[in-house]
Write a structure and sequence with these properties.
The protein has 351 residues and is mostly helical. 85% of the residues lie in helices and 0% in strands. The protein starts with a helix and ends with a helix.
Amino acid sequence: MVVKNIQILDLFKSSTFYLLSQLSIFGLPVFLIPLLTRALSPEEFGITSLFFTLLGGLSGFVLLSGTGSVTRKFFFKDDDSFNFQCYIFNAVFLNVALCVSVLPLFYLLWRFNVFKLPSWLYLILPPMLLLTIVKTYKHKLWNVQKNSKSFAFFDLGYSFLGFIGVLLWVLCVSNGAEARIIPMFLIEMIFCFLGVYFLVKEDGFEISINIDYIKDIFKYGLPLLPHSIGLLLLGSFDKLIIGSFLDLTSVGLYSIAVSYASLLSIFTISFDNLLRPILYEIFKRDCRDEDARYVVIFGVFLASISVLAIIQYKAMTWVFPFSLVRISNARRNLFSGLLVHKFVLRYIGFG
């Protein structure tokens, strides 16, 4: 009974940390909206939104589920025939190679001005893409290692520094699109360094190219590439279409509504982070009864989130104009699709 109470207490602590983490990630940018809508024109707001959309979309290809491979292999790190430290290096090495391989794409996007972005953003996009990806390795490992405290403080530090950095840049330096992008680029550098530092300190990092490990990462990541493309289509394609066929002002106005709709992810992603390490341990045991339990848990969670989404939509109709609510409600439906996509992937991806 005492052991069970301790487990419940640990679960409550972890859920609290994960909730605080997502509150900082999705909540603080919403608090910045009143400032940014005054300091930035709708077009400049659209530039920042489209930039981060491209960053997120391309990261799915460059990452190639490298963090998923590493977190999956973490549960086999004690096998005598497996070198986990070398595996981490090869995953990062592969990401660097893939990032270099997409440089011609950045050139073509700039050359033909597909998204009407300023030229300097195409220079900052590749290094920021790589920094963002490398930063996530230790962050994801903290999650499967059930170190929710470090996971949450990493997110909290990143979000609060980003909030303060953008605020100071707008107040003290300039009001253009760079006020949102340059501070975040500098913070990505800081937290990438911290992520690598803790990765080397806690998990090790053996610099040695292993073709078998690279093949294994490809074997895991390539079948999931359609999943990454699907996430891009569900989560980013709307902004890319608006940016290509309309103008950046339209992207900026649309992005404001999307920011409010993304608040629903505070609960969905928090629960996913809490459940991920538990699921990996369940799947490692390869028990059909545990698989069935997972399906039941997911069904209950999806029903709960659906009720929460309805309440959120009704509340928004009292606060925001109807047009804004319609856009936010559409994005809420996309987040629901992403949720189902993620949980199904979690089920099949460990095998």
